[in-house]
Amino acid sequence: MNLKEGAHVIYDTLLFIGMAVIYLMEALLFKLIPRRYRAKSIAGEVALVTGGAGGIGRLIAIKLANLGAHVVIWDIDKQGLLEVAEKIREAGGTCHTYSCDIADKKEVYRTAKATKIEVGSVSLLVNNAGYVCGKTLVELPDHEIERTFSVNILSHYWITKSFLRNMMKNNHGHIVTIASAAGLVGNYNCTDYSATKFAAVGYHESLFAELKVHGYDNIRMTLVCPYLINTGMFDGVKSRLLPTLEPEYVAEEVVAGVLTNEMLIVLPNIMMYFLLFKWLVPPKMCWAIIYHVFKEPQAMMMFKGRESRKMNIADNSTTNNKDICTQ
């Protein structure tokens, strides 16, 4: 390393230290200021929520509409679409619904085109829809693996690409990725599901880097990693130590995170500290904690699964429908 390169390293290090102090002070200040004083307005924004006909997707859509957003919902549950649209309109909100199987790339692009023509370009995108099968690897049918990847991660690419260029053109927008705690720590019966959620985290962080590097600072991004949500998606699973989250709480946290431009939401918050064990302790010790203390693998062994699902709910929010065989 020559003198010039060494000077650059010293300069960049000092710059980082200065920025670190500023960011730490900013984070502390934000902790002290109530959210309602930091919240931005989303009135007039076109907000797309995938899987918004039920579960936390439905709750998020309703909350966004109550805040003045023009809500667009994509789902395969036609009856659910009618019900949530009626609820939003009765409350004086605006809602447009489209029946769309996001596992089908051509259908995504077709529906996106219709959305832009009939409603406008999406400026607030909530990639929420998800799918889970819940079997061990040797028991997983190939088509279930493919379906899980198509819904939980590949669809994010097709949907985001459909609206990102316009966000970039205006340097304005917000992208929300509903991932999962299963995207931070793998678990039993989740080789497909957990892999897609890990992928969703990587996709989100990489897209954030691309936008920041190219100066699109006003396109905000929020990554959400919730633990088990009481919606039925993981029916039968009961955690030993961590509480099962209520859908209303999760939806409220997601919307609050959007309004305050939070970059990462891990629910419950205490999981942030538990995750440190994964990186700070030896792998065998980490496994011992998960297996003997939290007993997460044993809990996932109780997963009942479903013979039929519908793809209308994000991360932890699938409900039964005998005629629909996706999430």
Uncertain stretches: 306-327
Q: Tell me, briefly, the overall form.
A: globular
SSE pattern, N- to C-terminal: HEHEHEHEHEHEHEHHHH
Number of helices: 11
Structural class: alpha/beta
Kindly report the spatial arrangement of strands forming the biggest sheet.
3-2-1-4-5-6-7
Beta content comes to 5-15%
CATH topology: the name is Rossmann fold
User: What is the H level of CATH, i.e. the homologous superfamily?
Assistant: NAD(P)-binding Rossmann-like Domain
Second CATH tier, the architecture: 3-Layer(aba) Sandwich
Number of domains: 1
- Gap between N and C termini, in Å? 55 Å
At the first level of CATH, the class is: Alpha Beta
Rg from Cα? 21 Å
| Main pleated sheet | 7 strands, parallel
> Total strand count, please?
7
Fraction of residues in helix: 40-55%
Mean pLDDT: 88
Structure in words:
It is found in: Membrane. One of its GO terms (cellular component) is membrane. The protein has 327 residues and is of the alpha/beta class. It has one domain (39-301): Rossmann fold, CATH 3.40.50. It is built from eleven helices and seven strands.
Short description:
It comes from Harpegnathos saltator. The chain is an alpha/beta fold and 327 residues long.
Descriptors:
12% strand; alpha/beta; disordered C terminus; Rossmann fold; 327 residues; seven-stranded parallel sheet
Please write out the topology:
Elements: H1 3-32, E1 46-50, H2 55-66, E2 70-75, H3 78-90, E3 94-99, H4 105-118, E4 124-127, H5 142-170, E5 173-178, H6 191-213, E6 219-226, H7 247-259, E7 264-267, H8 271-274, H9 276-280, H10 283-294, H11 296-300
Parallel strand pairs: 1-2, 1-4, 2-3, 4-5, 5-6, 6-7
